[in-house]
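User: I'm putting together a teaching handout on how multi-component assemblies are represented. Below are the sequence lines for each component of a complex, exactly as they appear in our records. Could you produce the 3D structure of the whole assembly as structure tokens, so the students can see both representations side by side? Please keep the chain order the same as the input.
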Amino acid sequence: MKNTITTVLCGTLLLSGTVFVSGAAFADDYAWDQLVALTDETNGIGARRVGTPQEKQTADWIAEQWKKSGYKVTSQPFSFELDGKVLKSENVMVDIPGQSDKVLVIGAHYDTKGDEKGSLGATDNGSGVVALLAMAKDLKGKQLPYTVRLIAFGAEEFGLNGSKYYVNKTGALDNVVGMINLDTIIGGDKLYVHSAHSTPYKCDYVRKANYTGDTSVRSGLKAVSDQLYKENGHKLHPTFEGYPEGETGNWSDHAPFACGGIPIGYLEATNFAIDGEEGNDGYSQTTNDALWSCFDDKTLSACNREEEKHWGKIWHTKFDRLDTLTPLFKDRLQTQLNQNIQVLETFALEANKWVK
Ligand SMILES: [Zn+2]
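Assistant: Of course. Below is the structure of the complete assembly, with chains in the same order as your input.
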């Protein structure tokens, strides 16, 4: 409790006089408090670019939080090449034991991009990381049908390095029946769940490529979310150029798992209704005027496509930080975070209903 109060105060100071939404309305502020603690530049870690001391510090911080929740934490160090340099990173993981040897992987990358523009990676992907922390705390001692393996992936930006490394390790996919990727699960206007594409990704980096576009994890997550949140549940994106309804590309940590033959689900907050820079592809995340030079409500696009500078994008921009976003979105960020966690925990508790 003391910790919660301290962090809330800290959050109030951080937002320096702007509207701070009291956590009183929420049953559990743990995830939100951890997001504040991780992304605060002054008292926390802030940006976490690949190969920096801050990325390493984040891996250690995640391990420390899981240890506080009573887990044995495994670190999986790896190196990778970026722009001709060899960099180091690591995956950090815990297993929450279930009643069978089948494994459900839930993963989120902890590195960030766009620090030169002022991003602190609050939504991309601090949100996914703190969901992993909350699940470890909440699911401890619960009767889980399958073991839940939580993995914080290093070095996702610039090459999915952590998830590729994990998938290529001998035995890493043994008994794994499904994988859920969390990447930017708050911030955007709507919550979505995706599956891998029905057309196989290029999988030449996976030793035993055995691609699947199986939709069972997506279907299960959607059913759980619809049941709990009715019309506000996670949506499937409509069909857009090259992407049938609900199917996503290979740009995040779910891709190596799909290549390894594992059914995937991918949670994301964005807005596929917006006609963005490249069409309705979900890269424009919000209609909020503050994130556009000028947004036209009628066309759901920029007033002037030539002159638009921001395109409603939060990720990798100066908007991806709580001191900017919280005043713009009020309690939406925390509400979305808690909804995602609730859906994930419910899915984990009945995973045998959805994946075999
Ligand atoms: Zn991301």
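A couple of points students might notice: Residues 109, 124-125, 183-184 surround zinc ion (CB under 6 Å). Residues 1-26 have pLDDT under 50 and may be disordered.
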